[in-house]
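## retry 2 of 3
previous attempt timed out at serialization; input unchanged, resubmitting
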Amino acid sequence: MKTIGIATHSAEGGALCFVTACREGAKHLGEHMHPNIAASAIPMGLSMAAWRSDDHETVAHHLLDGIDMVDKAGADFFVCPDNTAHIVLEKVADRFPIPGLHIADVVCHEIVSNNWTRVALLGTDWTMTGPIYASRIQAAGWELLIPDGETRRFIDDAIFKELCNGEFKDGTIVRFIEAIASLEARGAECVILGCTEIPLIVTPENSPLPTLDSTSLLASYAVAEALADDPLVTDGGWLHPR
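## retry succeeded, writing output
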């Protein structure tokens, strides 16, 4: 059995990924059982100024420190439960000490299995307007739908000022659900919860659209990889989702 490394960027998303991986492991291995997990948590606060100034090399330094920590703790591969972080991780994949499981590859693998082609996306503004999902969705010939600028700003602000701090306000939940309903009205067939904290307030029960919970999917695919008997298959530092 392989050891999973969780290189956390934001605390809330990292904690949710860890707990989900443990619960997913129990489904396969029995009560209180899961693959071995090594975790690191370099404070996201060390990277925030660099994110805002587009200093991706400084962000990469902290992310790679976290990956190095789980590597030294015995992890065979790592996951980073933070969608936005993958903007930088993609640029430094040749510097990974161990392979990574890409959160967007996992989500898109799930989209294929459901035959969806019109995909909505919520996340930080960097994620919604950036290349992580857009490049994959364009390559697949699908359509990507994101909220309007005002709504994107609200979602981004709520993620960093509320969700990342463990604050879950009723009014914020309503705005997120309204954003999804608006994307549904534009023809979206599903919505990617492309920030690892969004599943803390948006669920299959309250979402107008089927949800692609990037946190849970990443944890589930990581467990599947850890339990697989065959060796890791990598491409440019990244694993192929099973």
